């Protein structure tokens, strides 16, 4: 069984009820949520828990808190409320505001400490169009903060567009990789990487990235992180939601099979209570 999750942006146009239903039908074991998905659902916490339980899904990842470097982001109250009432595994946190990298260490550690109070992990996500652009830059912050629940979110689109290579994994413990997000890239980068990333990603294994090579390198490095499929795509948005979910799961499962990489099971912070 592939314990794949469907990230929030793969079915970003679907309401929460539809998203949960079609993700489960496609074979996903979990979903990702943006805070806005939760707030816009117009469902009580108990209804969301029942919906997830009905379809056998859990929430793998939660986003977004934007500029955590200046202190506690007001959205964290909602994020941790969701963690305590519905359950999540980890937060994905990029950094879109300009701060010297050294000035991110203490705030990242503080964010990890706040998350730890709720049993939640934190994955620092590098994005080539953000202020932490590479795997190495993210690792510098995570390593210096040195929190047991702090790690790195590794998105394959960002890996490819940042120019990462398997050699960049050297010196980074496999356990630091909090999660891996599967997707693929166009043959040539567009002038505006932000625009490309948010509208024209491709299904994993359907683009120009060496997806199997990266997965093989992660496997050989000992990475055993949960896997999700995250494909921001206007083309997929235009398809029926069930089709998108089916295609996303099929593509994700296929590349993992071909790479000989199992998608491991995982638990949320409320697993014992569920």
From TrEMBL:
Q: Which residues, by range, are in coiled-coil regions?
A: none
Q: Which domain of life is it from?
A: Bacteria
Instruction: Check the record and name the SUPFAM superfamilies matching this protein.
Output: Xylose isomerase-like
Q: Pfam families under this entry?
A: AP_endonuc_2
Which residue ranges does the record assign to the Xylose isomerase-like TIM barrel domain? 22-243
PANTHER family hit by this protein: BLL3656 PROTEIN, HYDROXYPYRUVATE ISOMERASE
Task: Indicate what this protein is called per its UniProt record.
Answer: Xylose isomerase-like TIM barrel domain-containing protein
